[in-house]
Amino acid sequence: MKKIITAVLVGTLLASGMTVTASAAKDNNAIVSPLWINIARISGKVSVNGSKGSLSALVSGNPEVTKITATATLYYKSGSSWVKTSTKWNYSVNATLLPISETFSASSGKTYKVVLSGTAYAGSTSEAFSAEFVQN
């Protein structure tokens, strides 16, 4: 009888709300990590016009955020794989907003993306974030 009760209790615990499911949201071709505490929003766009490419992005921290650090890394597509380039930009601001505006040399016929990763600081709490912006 004890084994049956134990099995029922374990089954009930496993079937209850103990499972956490997370999924990324897709917004304007940007894949954004879910469930941030310090980050209110990340938006961005990669575009290419001839031999000139541009990245514009904005990381918006919640009001408690005092510092945001980030690195943006440029990739291009080769077949079905993404190739990391030597182009990257580093940022650090003591503010709730990190505006980003960069240009890069582009090659005709290539598709580009930027991976933005960083950390938002609020008091003694730090939180990592990551976002991807793919050229339309």
Written overview of the protein:
This protein is mainly beta and 136 residues long. The protein has 1 helix and 9 strands, in the order αβββββββββ. The chain has one helix at 2-15, and strands at 25-27, 30-32, 39-49, 52-61, 67-78, 81-93, 97-105, 112-122, 125-134. The strands form 2 sheets. The chain has a 6-stranded antiparallel β-sheet, with no helix packed on it. The longest helix has 14 residues, at 2-15. It is elongated.
Describe the strand arrangement of the main beta sheet, using strand numbers: 1-2-9-8-5-6
Strand content: over 45%
Would you list the SSEs in sequence order as H and E?
HEEEEEEEEE
- Rg, rounded, reads 20 Å
Overall pLDDT score: 82
Question: Key terms for this structure?
Answer:
mainly beta; three-stranded antiparallel beta sheet; 136 residues; single chain
Structure in a nutshell:
A hairpin with a 2-residue loop joins strand 1 and strand 2. This protein is mostly beta strands and 136 residues long.
